[in-house]
Input
Amino acid sequence: MSYHHLTIEQRECILENLAAGKNKREIARIIGCSPSTITRELKRNSKRNHYSPSKAQGRYKWRRRRCHRPLILGNKENREIIFNLICAFQWSPEQIANRLKKDGHPLNVSTATIYRAINRQLFDSRRLWPKERGFKKNLRHKGHKRRDKNKQDGRGKMKIPHAIEERPAAARDRSEKGHLEADTVIGKTGGHVSLLW
Output
């Protein structure tokens, strides 16, 4: 029989059957668990031969919280170390995890742990709205600055200071020599620009 934690309903069933005068083996058969589970439950959660399902459930939840390994970055001092390395030195979580391990630092933290802490907003002073970046904006982005998605990219584009309509009439009707027109179509890198007379 596999072991399962008792639920609040099962604990209430234990109390009802105890009040009905049934023994531990009978109660175990009704609930579908081992008699030793009933014995252990009553021993741990009875006070002066009185058993309370709600108090037993509360103690169970308290013990469950204590048995889990605490978050490494739940500690304020550990968080400050990671916070400073990201903000002051612009280190990535990968760099931090590898460098701390290489230097034999007492704080042994993985890259995944740092990212989980950032996603859980452990480094933010308040709970953020879904679209707010918060501390995430301090992360390096493959060595490049983050760009606004709404801002148009100007790389590889020529800025033309004057429109063609502004050219002099003599240039437009070609009544004077010496005016040049250049083809502003951008070709391959290093390609020539043709001039029109």
